[in-house]
Specification:
676 residues; alpha+beta; Beta-Lactamase; Rossmann fold; 5 domains; 20 strands
């Protein structure tokens, strides 16, 4: 590490004007680059003191770096941090590698060739996934060792919202190749490094799925480092494209051999393992809704479905597949075949929409607060008003969005978007759509946005508090004018959409702190529904436990579990920081772990037993009215991390938030411990 520190003392590095090949991965400026260590540090210190970027021209730092510093500060990054987050350990890293095996295999050739050249070069080559988590490293052994000191190793999280300005995170954020040298980094602990990163795009839909990065001490800086990683990223994309073509051909063969039966007039849609359309043929005109079957369009989120029936239920409302079948390659589910009736959607679709899709409009429970929230949701549905649903993580806010849809617009589409799970660069295109060639990576034939797909129906925007501030005026404009303008297009497209926004934040507090537009807040909250937490719902806890018990008994084809009085009393007294989702997960685990029919206290998680002994109950019981929403949120995160033994992917899934949101919350509450 000492050699890297000494290298950071260099005074000036100059990049002469030269054209750098982009390899189709974004625009690299060919302007002169002049770096001054002392002036850059001075500008960084002034930025931290004033919490604002100096006017362009008055600052010696590149514009893209200044913009990244500003984003890093807005994300709450600690500028004095010495290392990146390292939430992954042992088994979690194995699962991380397995989940990204296609990307790792596609990179093997390029990494093997370049890796041979890096021994003794003081440089290391890095591969990350689309969240900036490192999944592969290769290079000089001493540099690899130095990298471990700042978690520049497999499992380290190097997104811009995790460790500020750096070659990996900033390339992900901007979607363009970039180098970040020495004091241009936002965090003090990594200013003795230089790095150059280039994004890897999925050849099929052009989404950013990873980054290739070259890092090392500052003396390895060369003007061609960015071109090197851009070329490597281009080669990985080429290999991925070939593999995807081969897999699409194999999926078609698997469908021909074993797919569901179909008639001559029926349409065929094949989805890949990511839920994207990779093949469609003979589609009835009646089902061609707003380009829903366009190549690359994602119809379902595979991470949320586990059976063919769940896939059918998760499809947009205007679809009514006659057949759904998994497609297996080498013994593993790698895609799905949908058969769309040649007669188009049933004319009785409106009458049977709720039973066919098994919409969760029956919200279990009858406590007064819940009943009032349900009544308000029904009245809002009838009025067609915008609805803001507020409540803690896990209370079931999306069920109220489904209720609004089922009450008034059940024959029309229900479209959902998690604002916290979409990159800031892509959220505009996802919401409003785009025309062909609107931006780098745009779908060739253009693409409708979620507003158009939800026309006549309901659009549910989850984690609305994560909506980027620069996108909020556009959302307000659409709501006020009831029309969208696709990115790159001047054509007005009228839409009739009832918007339901969900949040676990105190949006009014966000408004007061300048992080959310006041006018948008009042436009969204025409009707505001507060969903009560489970700890305030009394006997609903036991009612829900019986409801979930029946569900898992039928699903797993085993007798109903019996909950003795002492177990029921403990469940009734526990604070349930994870709310309904935590209760459902507990019942599912009990059906997996309990061998007999009687549930004992020993079968319950340690935190529940501790509550029964008076340790945690004092913090969690409803009579403790002094606890804030932030306290409960922090407790929910800590308990879930403990329950999931530090697996942050499962923690995010259990809490119903994106991984970037989880990382931000962990920084906010100073949650650093990894539970083994």
């Amino acid at each position: 590490m000492a050699r890297a520190v000494r290298a950071a003392q260099s005074a000036r590095v100059v990049m002469a004007k030269s054209a750098i090949p982009t390899n189709g991965l974004g625009h690299l400026r060919a302007a002169q680059y002049e770096y001054d260590e002392r002036e850059t540090m001075r500008a960084w210190e002034k930025f931290l003191i004033n919490n604002r970027v100096l006017p362009e021209g008055a600052c010696p730092v590149r514009k893209e770096i200044l913009q990244s510093w500003s984003r890093s500060s807005s994300s709450g990054i600690d500028a004095q941090a010495n290392e990146a987050p390292m939430p992954y350990r042992s088994e979690a890293i194995s699962r991380l590698k397995h989940a990204n095996r296609d990307l790792r295999e596609a990179a093997r050739g390029a990494f093997s060739q370049i890796g041979k050249l890096l021994e003794g070069s003081d440089a290391m080559l890095i591969l990350t996934d689309g969240n900036g988590v490192i999944i592969e490293t290769i290079g000089d052994e001493r540099t690899l060792d130095d990298g471990r000191e700042i978690h520049l190793e497999i499992g380290g999280v190097w997104g811009e919202d995790a460790i500020g300005t750096n070659g990996i995170g900033t390339a992900l954020r901007t979607g363009c190749p970039i180098f970040v040298h020495a004091s241009e980094h936002f965090c003090a602990g990594i200013k003795c490094w230089t790095c150059a990163g280039a994004p890897i795009r999925d050849p099929f839909d052009q989404s950013v799925i990873g980054v290739v990065d070259l890092s090392g001490p500052t003396e390895i800086f060369r003007r061609h480092n960015t071109a090197l990683v851009a070329a490597a990223a281009s080669e990985i994309q080429r290999v991925l494209g070939e593999r995807q073509q081969q897999e699409r051909a194999r999926l078609l063969e698997a469908f021909i051999e074993s797919g569901p039966a179909r008639g001559e007039r029926d349409g065929v849609v094949l989805l890949d393992r990511y839920g994207r359309v990779v093949y469609n043929r003979n589609m009835p005109k009646a089902t061609q809704n707003a380009g829903a079957f366009a190549m690359g369009q994602r119809l379902v989120d595979p991470s949320r479905v586990r059976s063919e029936a769940e896939i059918a239920a998760a499809l947009p409302c205007f679809l009514e597949p006659r057949g759904v079948s998994f497609l297996r390659l080498d013994g593993e589910v790698r895609g799905t075949a949908l058969i769309i009736s040649g007669d188009g959607p049933s004319t009785r679709r409106a009458e049977r929409a709720a039973p066919a899709r098994k919409l969760p409009v029956e919200i279990v429970g009858d406590c007064p607060k819940l009943a009032a929230a349900i009544d308000l949701a029904r009245r809002a549905a009838e009025a067609g008003a915008s609805v803001l649903v507020q409540g803690e993580t896990g209370v079931g806010k999306e069920l109220f969005a489904r209720l609004v849809h089922a009450e008034a617009r059940k024959a029309a589409p229900f479209v959902a978007l998690n604002c916290g799970a979409i990159s800031r660069d892509l959220i505009g295109a996802e919401l409003f759509g785009h025309v062909a060639g609107a931006f780098t990576g745009a779908v060739r034939e253009g693409k409708p946005g979620k507003f158009e797909l939800a026309d006549k129906g309901v659009l549910c925007l989850d984690e609305i508090g994560e909506m980027p501030q620069d996108m909020q005026p556009y959302l307000l404009r659409v709501l006020e004018q009831r029309a969208v303008w696709r990115i790159g297009d001047s054509r007005r497209r009228p839409v009739d959409v009832q918007l339901v926004a969900l949040t676990n934040r105190d949006l009014l507090a966000e408004v007061e702190q300048g992080r959310f537009r006041r006018d948008l807040y009042y436009r969204l909250g025409t009707v505001t529904i507060h969903v009560p937490p489970l700890r305030e719902r009394g006997d609903d806890i036991l009612t829900l436990a019986e409801h979930f018990s029946l569900e898992f008994s039928e699903r797993q084809n085993r007798p109903l579990l019996h909950f003795p009085d002492e177990v029921r009393e403990l469940m009734r007294a526990y604070g349930w920081p994870g709310n309904v989702r935590e209760l459902r997960n507990l019942i599912e685990r009990l059906y997996l772990l309990v061998r007999g029919r009687d549930v004992s206290l020993e079968d319950l998680p340690p935190e529940m037993r501790a509550a029964g002994q008076g340790g945690a109950a004092a913090k969690a019981r409803p009579e403790d009215g002094a606890r804030s929403l932030e306290d409960l949120e922090e407790e929910a995160i800590r308990n879930t991390i403990r329950a999931e033994k530090g697996n942050l992917s499962r923690v995010a899934a259990t809490l119903g938030i994106s991984r970037p949101t989880l990382y931000r919350k962990m920084r906010l509450y100073d949650i650093r411990r990894v539970y083994e």
